[in-house]
Design brief:
The chain has twelve helices and 15 strands. Helix 4 (109-115) runs parallel beside helix 5. The chain has two domains: 6-47 and 310-410, Aspartate Aminotransferase, domain 1; 52-308, 3-Layer(aba) Sandwich (Aspartate Aminotransferase, domain 2). It has helices at residues 16-30, 50-63, 80-91, 109-115, 134-142, 196-209, 249-252, 280-291, 297-305, 309-335, 359-370, 396-409; strands at 37-38, 103-106, 126-130, 158-162, 180-184, 212-216, 242-247, 260-263, 269-271, 277-279, 340-342, 348-352, 372-373, 375-376, 387-391. It is globular. Helix content is 36%, strand content 14%. It is an alpha/beta fold and 417 residues long. The protein has a seven-stranded mixed β-sheet with strand order 2-8-7-6-5-3-4, with helices on both faces. A four-stranded antiparallel β-sheet has the order 11-12-15-14. Bound molecules: D-malate. Residues 41-43, 110, 188 line the site of D-malate (MLT).
């Protein structure tokens, strides 16, 4: 008899985005002529830029030659050409030295942020911000690191740090000790961004408490203020306490192409049962080489091209386009009386629902009355109740039209109430 992993039965409902997809599909079936505007899942909409397409095509042609053919990729995932481009452009350019052996190239930060918990002990206590990218929580539930969920959807055994208007949606470290803490900046879903001082406080706390920070920087390309840190390693001491994830998905239109990377510094260790300290880099290398066979050569060449002068220019223009969308959403919704957050250094707008309408009610009403898809804040955690998220990934025209439709759908009371 194949017994199932009982921990899966603790998971609340389905994963957020399939549930949204189900509701949208049901709406569309009932209203086949409705012209929907999708600002729900954060999926890029602009086509791959010409320089990246060219790199993909050239790499594909290379694979069709005896000299250029390649089979399995490197054990740590990344070919040296990409790993070196990452070290130079993402790190050295910001004064951070990262070694080749510390970079693990993968097919997505979703996978990496979900899988990283495998190298930690079952008894590890974890902390997350609330609202939170659901992958951090669900993968720990699946692994059996929590008890059941309560009415609000919070699992026993997890320390939730409420991200609220009062703390600018960037909660500081807790008073209690935990073994792992997940941070995401720029933040999905609230669109907030961590300042240098904020990250310094987290790093100091983590070092004092012997906690590992899992820092998800998948949206770093959307930071507009050059003074804000892009990497946790810009903070002194972070190499001893932090793992970092970055992605090409949103910065270069790779949500379908798939390429990302995780940095595990050599100094970073975890405690073994016999009291010795074990480098986490070795454990992640073991995990990566056992369960993963690298990202296609073609995709890695396209990722490398993101760092070329033309690639930087083209992808930079795409990011700027989305950020202008974010500004339109911010300004348009705020002008209609809604309370708006985020969207200045992230492609997400976090909005308080008017008149205390619940997140899912707002979602349903906006879909029904305005034919606009957003993401209910409650889907990201109990503290997301009363908020919704709008993604800036769409055309300018649709974003502007969506602002009008949100206004129209909730006309008699845009005011946050
Ligand atoms: C989101 O909408 O939150 C993201 O697209 C999810 C993801 O990147 O996996």
């Amino acid at each position: 008899m194949a017994r199932i992993n009982e921990h899966y039965r603790k998971l609340r409902a389905g994963y957020l985005f399939p549930e949204i997809g189900r509701r949208v599909a049901a709406f569309q079936a009932a209203h086949p002529d409705a012209d929907l505007i999708r600002l729900g899942i954060g999926d890029v909409t602009l086509p791959l830029s010409p320089t990246l397409v060219d790199a993909l095509q050239r790499a594909a042609a290379e694979l069709g030659t005896p000299e250029g053919f390649r089979g399995y990729g490197p054990a740590r995932g990344g070919y040296d050409f990409l790993v070196d481009a990452i070290r130079t452009h993402d790190y050295e350019a910001r004064g951070v030295a990262i070694e080749r052996q510390e970079i693990f190239v993968s097919d997505g930060s979703k996978q990496d942020s979900g899988n990283i918990q495998e190298i930690f002990g079952q008894e590890c206590a974890i902390a997350v911000t609330d609202p939170v990218y659901p992958v951090y929580v669900d993968t720990n539930v699946m692994a059996g690191r929590t008890g059941p969920a309560d009415e609000s959807g919070r699992y026993t055994g997890i320390v939730y740090l409420a991200a609220t208007e009062e703390n600018d949606f960037s909660p500081g470290p807790p008073d209690t000790s935990v073994d792992l803490a997940y941070l995401c900046s720029p933040n999905n879903p609230t669109g907030s961004v961590a300042s240098r001082e904020h990250l310094e406080a987290w790093v100091a706390w983590a070092r004092e408490r012997d906690t590992v920070l899992i820092f998800d920087a998948a949206y770093d390309a959307f930071i507009r203020d050059p003074a804000l840190p892009h990497s946790i390693y810009e903070i002194e001491g972070a190499r001893e306490c932090a793992i970092e994830m970055r992605s090409f998905s949103k910065r270069a239109g790779f949500t379908g192409v798939r390429c990302a990377y995780t940095v595990v510094p050599r100094e970073l260790t975890g405690a073994a049962a016999d009291g010795s300290r074990i480098p986490l880099n070795d454990l992640w290398a073991r995990r990566h080489s056992t369960k993963f066979n690298s990202v296609p050569y073609t995709v890695q060449r396209a990722a490398e091209a993101v760092f070329s002068p033309e690639g930087k220019k083209e992808t930079g223009e795409q990011v700027a386009y989305y950020m202008t969308n974010a500004a339109r959403l911010r300004e348009g919704l705020a002008a209609s009386g809604f309370r708006i957050f985020g969207g200045e250094h992230a492609p997400y707008i976090w909005m308080r629902t008017p008149r205390s309408i619940s997140s899912w009610d707002f979602f349903d009403r906006l879909l029904d009355r305005g034919h606009v898809v957003c993401t209910p804040g409650a889907g990201f955690g109990a503290a997301g109740e009363g908020y919704v998220r709008f993604s800036a990934f769409n055309t300018r025209e649709k974003v502007e039209e969506a602002v009008e439709r949100v206004r129209g759908a909730f006309e008699s009371g845009g005011a946050a109430g």
